[in-house]
Design brief:
By secondary structure, the protein is α+β, with helices and mostly antiparallel strands. It has 2 helices and 9 strands, in the order ααβββββββββ. The strands form 2 sheets. A 5-stranded mixed β-sheet has the order 1-9-8-7-6, with no helix packed on it. It has a 4-stranded antiparallel β-sheet with strand order 2-3-4-5, with no helix packed on it. The longest helix is centred in the N-terminal third of the chain and has 32 residues. The protein is elongated, with a radius of gyration of 34 Å. The relative contact order is 0.13.
Length: 184
């Protein structure tokens, strides 16, 4: 005769398993929603990639191998002949990669002015550079992309301290000097 208590315990175990699975799924959803960037996050569009053309030159055609003389035993041994490469199609020559896209001039180091706002990037004396890639704004934990690193307030970048992250700009401080980097 079947045990009625065993059936009840199994049913209860199934219900508790379903509730626990739902709780884990709900917790994961809440965690993901809290980690998602704010709706008003500003990340600038990336520049389009630069296409580089490369000239390919074909190696010279190989001369056909001479016919070998008859092999011992009376049978003529043949070696495979190299296949000639197709002739040029008459397309214009493509410039080399070096002449296709000239490098933009490097930003000159400038004397930094206290309180000045620099759009996008600033060249520092000594050859260093700080570049603002984007801002993810949040009242509690704002983040900025500086020199390809995600940083928060009080982080160090090229000797500067990130003093404040605002929705449109980042304040950097060093030795009493404050500069601002704004989105382009």
């Amino acid at each position: 005769m079947p045990d009625a208590g065993l059936a009840r315990r199994r049913r209860l175990a199934r219900i508790l398993t379903a509730v626990a699975g739902f709780a884990v799924a709900a917790g994961a959803a809440v965690w993901l929603l809290r980690r998602a960037p704010a709706e008003n996050a500003r990340v600038p569009a990336r520049e389009a990639p630069v296409a580089v053309a490369v000239a390919v030159t074909a190696p010279p055609l190989a001369a056909p191998a001479p016919e070998p003389s008859a092999a011992p035993g009376g049978a003529a041994a043949r070696s495979p002949r190299p296949t000639p490469l197709p002739a040029a199609t008459g397309e214009p020559d493509v410039p080399s990669a070096a002449s296709a896209a000239p490098e933009p001039p490097a930003p000159r180091a400038q004397a930094l002015a206290d309180g000045k706002t620099y759009p996008g990037s600033v060249a520092l004396p000594g050859g260093a550079k700080i570049e603002l890639g984007g801002i993810v704004w949040s009242e509690t934990e704002p983040r900025a992309l500086l020199n390809d690193r995600i940083v928060g307030v009080d982080a160090w970048v090229e000797g500067f301290t990130v003093a404040k992250i605002e929705p449109e700009r980042v304040a950097l401080e060093k030795d009493g000097l404050t500069i601002f980097l704004s989105l382009k």
